[in-house]
Amino acid sequence: MTPIALTIAGSDSSGGAGIQADLKTFAALGVYGASVITALTAQNTTGVSGIHQVPAEFITAQIDAVFSDLAVGAVKIGMVAQPASIDAIVAGLTRWSPKHVVLDPVMVATSGDRLLAAEAVDALRTKLIPLASVITPNLPEAAALLDEPVAESEAAVENQGKRLLAMGCRAVLIKGGHGQGAESTDYFIDAAKTITLAAPRVATKNTHGTGCSLSSAIAAGLAKGENMETAVRNAKAWISAAISAADRFSVGRGHGPVHHFHKYY
Questions:
Q1: Can you tell me the distance from the alpha carbon of 42 to that of 158, in angstroms, rounded to the nearest whole number?
Q2: Sign, CA torsion 82/213/12/139
Q3: Using CA atoms, how far apart are residues 173 and 190, in angstroms rounded to an integer?
Q4: DSSP state, residue 132
Q5: Measuring CA to CA, which residue among 104, 90, 234 is closest to residue 173?
Q6: Under a CB-based contact definition with an 8 Å cutoff, are residues 127 and 167 in contact?
Q7: Which bin fits 209, alpha (ψ -120 to 50), beta or left (φ > 0)?
Q8: Cα 160 from chain centre
């Protein structure tokens, strides 16, 4: 069987994040990628200058077209933008029942531009999170989902993770890239345990698409048959290497992309 993963997310016209980053990640990890586009962004390494929403009924059409033909092993969900998009995705996932759903609750781009309408946050919490196998918020996103300040200690991160778990998802990965210190530490939390995943913090401004790519790497592992913990550990190692290699590129004047194909060139 060919492992197949589906990304449901927004398009990044500069190629570093969103659908483009997801498909590059799938390809780099030996997984066939399909896509459902929820929004078009006019975007580059310095910021987002425009967002064009894809109508909900066309999101539905894309989901049904993919699932009716392809044996999708895992789904990654990124930018959902608006409540109508969330409703279409929830209905599609309920209809097709994929085995694995990785939800990256994208709220703000690396540049600081908002990618999720304020009125959509509650729908994300109550409708989409309960369908997720794992959610992958960074520290600010975890805080925003809980209406709390950003966690500043390991105990606070773990506490927030457990309360996110109570929203109905099966596991939580809180990413520590926005934290401080010599290491970037992520926290994987499920009903049974908390696992700390640390990697050296890389001094680079080229981190565009990091969150998109990490969640896609987890989905790729799940599509290949890895269990959740293995998929998360492998994804963390892969994205850390992609960030370390990011400065091999010279792309744009702002936050450049990570190097998805660091193994190959």
A1: 36
A2: positive
A3: 9
A4: -
A5: 104
A6: no
A7: left
A8: 18
Q: How far from each other are the two terminal CA atoms of the chain, in whole angstroms?
A: 28
pLDDT per residue as tens digits for the range 43-78 = 999 988 999 999 999 999 999 999 999 999 999 999
CA atoms of 135 and 142, how far apart (whole Å): 10
Instruction: Name the residues annotated as catalytic.
Output: 175, 207, 209-212
Instruction: Fill in the DSSP letter of residue 128.
Output: I
- Nearest of 46, 62, 44 to residue 54 by alpha carbon: 62
Residue type, 93: L
At 50, the amino acid letter reads G
What tens digit of pLDDT does each residue of 198-243 get?
Answer: 888 888 888 899 999 999 999 999 999 999 999 999 999 999 999 9
pTM (whole model) above 0.90: yes
179-192 pLDDT tens trace: 666 788 899 999 99
Residue type, 35: S
